[in-house]
Design a protein that fits this description.
alpha+beta, SH3 type barrels, five-stranded antiparallel beta sheet, two-stranded antiparallel ribbon, elongated
């Protein structure tokens, strides 16, 4: 128990992260007791991780007689690490935290590495990443965690989750981190305050915040707080609320999520709401979104197309193709259609005396003036086409993107190519006994 007490005392004043504006020090564990617990509960790395996990670390500096104050990573028995300025002292090391030096005994140190050497290894590994595959960042992030570069690891997971918010390997790594991290808002008693703390965190830490909320008792209070947060004035809180409902109870607020998926002014909120509707697994939830395709408002139609692409229900393919065909018809924006034409006159008219008629009445001659009207100016042929062309072009592009998401196909960048593809392949996406008519009927 001596070592346990010493470890606890050490980490009461040390933080295991480097200062960062993106990932503040408060997010990381400050008690080594939790590091010791992590040793017993940590799961093995992902299957793809060994390529990084077995990459050799720089030479161990833990026994070096170096009293210089340099940035180092001190690895502790149990899996945690301290990344700070450190110097060698008799029987251990001292690390600088919050302007003070804290001693760490050799008995609890596994190894000590220079920070610059670890960062050099990280850069060498990053050159091997497949930049076109967001999932390739996950095993790299696993190695960074184990190397004590927590901030860099979380940034890699942020990039992955921005590309795919439900990337399974990234979520699995966050669920079984090889190092203990404190979730934002975990220490707050108020659920509402914990939701706000999670909403203001970077993307990877939001997942930890949601997991922390899910462990609260009672869970019904958490769901209620997330439902209420969907109506917040802050887009970040609304987006976090949709994420939280997706992880905890995606079917809890379908009506509100439908409105957010189509009508919310934030693209991030619309995307998170659509992903939460997808997580329900019920294709019927796309029916109101399909009806929005017939809206007179172009913005609503475009948001509905985006939402259907994100939701991923196959029943939406046929209605989207039907909408594309309508845009490409003579009454739409393609083919031989011409914008309605009219004329506009720009000019003036005035009266003048053209002639006189002489009439005789009671033996007297009277001059009767003949008044005529003169017109001068120009008649212009006009067509109002700019607004329609812009709207249909954007809507057509969104339709093609949504169809690529739903079908995995890419026959071309024109409506004509997609319609030709549908004529040949549409039968594969029409309702079948396994996929009855639900959303496709709208």
């Amino acid at each position: 128990m001596e070592n346990d007490d010493m470890l606890d005392h050490t980490y009461e004043t040390c933080a295991s992260s480097s200062p960062s504006s993106r990932y503040p020090r408060v997010h990381f564990m400050s008690s080594l007791v939790l590091v010791l617990l992590a040793q017993a509960t940590a799961t093995p790395p992902l299957a793809a991780a060994p390529a990084y996990a077995t990459f050799p670390l720089p030479p161990d500096d833990s026994t070096a007689d170096d009293t210089r104050e340099l940035n180092r990573v001190v690895y502790l028995r149990g899996g945690g690490s301290v990344r700070a300025r450190a110097r060698r002292v008799d029987g251990g090391w001292e690390v600088r935290s919050d302007g003070q030096w804290t001693r760490i005994e050799d008995a609890v140190i596994d190894r000590v590495l220079l920070e610059r050497d670890v960062l050099a290894q990280a850069r060498e590994l990053s050159l091997k990443l497949d930049r076109n595959d967001p999932a390739a960042r996950v095993p790299y992030a696993d190695w960074l965690f184990r190397a004590g570069l927590y901030e860099e690891a979380l940034i890699q997971l942020d990039e992955t989750l921005q590309a795919n918010p439900d990337q399974p390997q990234a979520l699995a790594l966050l669920a079984h981190l090889p190092v203990p991290l404190r979730a934002p808002g975990a220490s707050l008693e108020s659920v509402e305050e914990a939701v706000r703390a999670g909403a203001t965190s970077p993307r990877a830490l939001q997942e930890l915040a949601v997991a922390s909320l899910a462990r609260r008792d009672p869970s019904a209070k958490v769901t209620e707080a997330l439902q209420k947060a969907l109506g917040s004035h802050s887009p970040r809180i609304r987006a976090f609320a949709a994420l939280g409902l997706r992880r905890i109870d995606p079917g809890a607020s379908v009506k509100e999520l439908l409105g957010r998926a189509v009508l919310d002014g934030s693209s991030e909120v619309r995307r998170e709401a659509a992903l939460t509707l997808k997580a329900t697994g019920e294709e019927a939830v796309s029916l109101p979104v399909l009806r929005a395709l017939g809206s007179a408002n172009s913005g609503v139609r475009e948001n509905a197309i985006d939402a259907l692409g994100v939701m991923g229900f196959r029943g939406a393919v046929e209605p989207l193709v039907a909408r594309m065909r309508a845009l490409s018809s003579p009454q739409g924006s393609g083919g031989a259609w011409k914008a309605p034409a009219s004329h506009i006159f720009v000019g003036r008219q005035f009266a003048y005396v053209q002639d006189y008629d002489v009439e005789v009445a009671q033996f007297a001659a009277v001059a009767d003036p003949q008044v005529n009207t003169a017109i001068e100016g120009a008649v212009l042929d006009v067509r109002v086409i700019g607004v329609h062309e812009m709207t249909f072009a954007v809507e057509s592009r969104k339709l093609r993107l949504a169809l690529r998401q739903l079908t995995g196909e890419n026959p071309g960048d024109t409506n004509k190519s997609w319609l030709a593809w549908w004529d040949s392949n549409g039968a594969r996406f029409r309702p079948t006994p396994e996929h009855p008519k639900t959303a496709g009927d709208a």
